[in-house]
Specification:
heterodimer, A: 401 residues, mainly alpha, ABC transporter involved in vitamin B12 uptake, BtuC, 2 domains, 18 helices, 73% helix, 0% strand, B: 269 residues, alpha/beta, Rossmann fold, 6-stranded mixed sheet, globular
């Protein structure tokens, strides 16, 4: 069943939803990256909650004018207007008053959402309201998705992506260093507003599929996940887009494969699964890698300290150090160095002296910055450079008075 | 001419009209965070091709003056002209090196990516980064002695190395006026030497360098002009005539011992 869904064999509606969700995931991940890099992830929460009153008012307006209150384009327009209003409120509160942005977000989020819920109740009492199913927009509801809806979502997603491509440089610059950006003629406030506008567009486009409460997850989890895998902002954007797209597609397919599995939450959970995998398994920044690196490093430190102690004929008491020296065949279990141990110890001491020279000479700065007390000097310097350094240290000497 | 009126209002001798050839001319500049001015009615005329240190005690408005000159903070009053024209027209000729503490160094970027930001104007919105751009960036890195670090993540750099990357980014802009905010703050000796060498070579090429500087003992060695500030302007001019004990006393008040001031001024004399 799931295989059928993944290969788009599950019928017209499921196919529309899967493709729409993939597109939404890509644009959410890509757009969310700039929010994440700018450290303003939570603004998206205010924006998304602020859509609700607009959705309701649009419904009431369309229904009273005799049209179909559920028209997706109309609802999206309404949500965009009230999301914009919410965003402006956050900006004004955080810039013109002494309140910080988090307080502004909290206030706007709850007030707008509360107002929206009141309007939802009003709609329930309207004659046309009972079948409205507007609460489906809270958590997404794809059951009755129309071809026209899918087209709107696809077009919205594509336009958002194109705009992100166009604005990626100024958005990256402002996220990294707003003061510098100003100095070369980029206005951070304008760029921020454009970023927020894009986030708003994604939120509005995502209403139907994941709903306004969960869209935040699709904006934030993909970039956070992507960050585990790369140190380049351009790659964060690409990977976040891929993660968002895969989550959308797979999540929609899973939810289509069984009855009564809600699409939005399943998409978010799929995304979260990718996050957890990355958190543990990412090669550099992952938890597991960090743990292993720490253990390996600890062992090397102990071994090195042990060798330096042996070289200076000091006794080694630390149990871990003794165990490691013994395991490497550098010392007997009682701490007495073997022949191999003596040789390695002498080399370790010599390397320390060499590093001292490296630190003194400015031409070796690149190498010196790699010094961690453990690294073999041969991995950093050529043998010519090492003999040059050895010349300044001088060969083994007898003790002079 | 509001700035002239303003200057007159505050009992300043009315400043001469902005010198058209000055790389950076400031008239009647006041900036305030809240109700207390950080800098008040400042006039400055930076000499072309000079190396100018902006010097003053903590909280004297040194960085603020620089930021206001660049439009990073908006002034309450005053005008700034760059090469005789408004900043927006001449922006391409100005490069700024912010304090390195002002950003998050865990940002996902490599050293070369940061330097490439200096080419933003050239690249535009959609231009691709070509080999020629990369070569320019590497050249700039080599001028600050950081070629080996091009592919490193910026979070792995020491403070001094971060500062040099920032300088390399500014070099990539090929500007005529360089404004640096505390370039020597918290850096190692090797970095300090690398930076001052680069700044002197900029001066030798006829470019103008203005730096916020907090180490009084190196002012005479590094700079040829000095701008003393303590919210208000104290003095401005060549180091030999301006970096005097009287002016230092005015700028620092009781914060420096008399002996210390004499010593510094003697070094300048």
């Amino acid at each position: 069943m799931l295989v059928d869904a993944l290969t788009l064999q599950l019928g017209y509606n499921a196919t529309l939803v899967a493709i729409g969700a993939a597109l939404l995931g890509i644009s959410a991940g890509v757009t969310g990256t700039f929010l994440f890099l700018r450290k303003r992830a939570l603004v998206s929460d205010a924006i998304s909650h602020a859509t609700l009153p607009g959705v309701c008012l649009a419904f009431i307006l369309m229904a009273t004018l005799g049209g179909d209150g559920r028209n997706l384009a109309g609802l999206m327009l309404g949500s965009a207007v009230s999301a914009w209003l919410g965003l402006v409120c956050v900006q004004v509160i955080s810039h013109k008053t002494r309140l910080a942005e988090d307080a502004a977000i909290g206030a706007v989020l709850s007030v707008f959402f509360g107002f929206g819920v009141v309007l939802l109740t009003v709609i329930q009492t309207m004659s046309s309201g009972r079948q409205a199913g507007l609460d489906g927009l809270l958590l997404g509801s794809t059951a009755g998705m129309l071809y026209a809806d899918a087209l709107i979502i696809a077009a919205g997603g594509a336009i958002t992506l194109a705009l992100v491509l166009l604005l990626r440089r100024p958005m990256t610059l402002v996220a990294f260093d707003p003061q510098y950006a100003t100095s070369i003629g980029i206005d951070p406030r304008r760029v921020d507003m454009m970023t927020m506008g894009l986030v708003m567009a994604v939120t509005v486009v995502g209403l139907k599929i994941v709903g306004l409460i969960l869209i935040v997850a699709l904006l934030i989890i993909p970039p956070v996940t992507a960050r585990f895998w790369t140190e380049k902002s351009a790659n964060v954007v690409l990977i976040a887009g891929a993660i968002g797209g895969v989550s959308g597609y797979v999540g929609a397919a899973i939810s289509a494969s069984a009855p009564a599995l809600p699409t939005g939450p399943i998409i978010v959970l799929t995304c979260f699964a990718l996050f957890v995998l990355s958190l543990f398994l990412a090669p550099e920044r992952g938890v597991l890698a960090a743990f292993l690196r720490h253990r390996r490093f600890q062992k090397r430190v102990h071994l090195r300290q042990g060798l330096l102690a042996l070289a200076q004929q000091q006794p080694v008491y630390e149990p871990l150090t003794r165990r490691l020296l013994a395991r490497e065949g550098l010392a007997r279990p009682d701490g007495v160095p073997t022949e191999a141990g003596k040789a390695r110890a002498a080399k370790a001491l010599r390397d320390e002296r060499r590093w001292q020279v490296v630190h003194r000479l400015p031409e070796y700065e690149g190498a010196a910055s790699l010094y961690d007390g453990l690294r073999d000097i041969e991995t950093v310097l050529t043998s010519d450079q090492i003999s040059e350094i050895d010349a300044t240290i001088g060969g083994p000497k007898g003790v002079t008075a | 001419m509001t700035h002239l009126e303003l200057a007159a209002d505050h009992g300043h001798p009315v400043a001469q009209a902005p010198a058209a050839d000055s790389p950076l001319a400031i008239r009647g500049l006041t900036v305030s965070y809240g109700e207390k001015p950080a800098v008040f009615s400042i006039d400055a005329t930076i000499a072309p091709g000079s190396m100018t240190a902006i010097v003053g005690p903590n909280g004297a408005g040194k960085s603020t003056m620089l930021k206001a000159a660049l439009g990073v903070v908006s002034p309450l009053s005053g005008t700034v002209t760059v090469f005789g024209q408004p900043l927006d027209i001449q922006r391409a000729r100005v490069a700024y090196v912010p304090q390195r503490a002002s950003i998050d160094w865990d940002f996902p970027a490599r050293v070369i990516d940061v330097v490439l930001m200096g080419l933003s104007r050239e690249l535009g919105l959609l231009g691709r980064v070509r080999d020629s751009h990369r070569k320019t960036a590497l050249d700039c890195l080599s001028r600050v002695g950081m070629t080996d670090f091009a592919e490193r993540q910026i979070g792995q750099l020491s403070g001094g190395q971060q500062q040099r990357v920032f300088l390399a980014r500014a070099l990539a802009q090929e500007a005529d006026l360089y404004l640096l905010d505390e370039p020597f703050a918290g850096v190692d000796a090797a970095t300090e030497k690398a930076i001052i060498d680069v700044l002197k070579s900029l001066k030798d090429q006829g470019r103008t360098v203005v730096a916020v500087h907090h180490d009084l003992s190196t002012v005479t060695e590094y700079f040829d002009h000095v701008f003393l500030i303590n919210v208000r302007k104290v003095a401005e001019g060549p180091v030999e005539t301006t970096f005097t004990s009287a002016n230092l006393q005015d700028a620092y008040g009781g914060r420096l011992g008399t002996g210390q001031i004499e010593e510094l001024a003697l070094a300048a004399g």
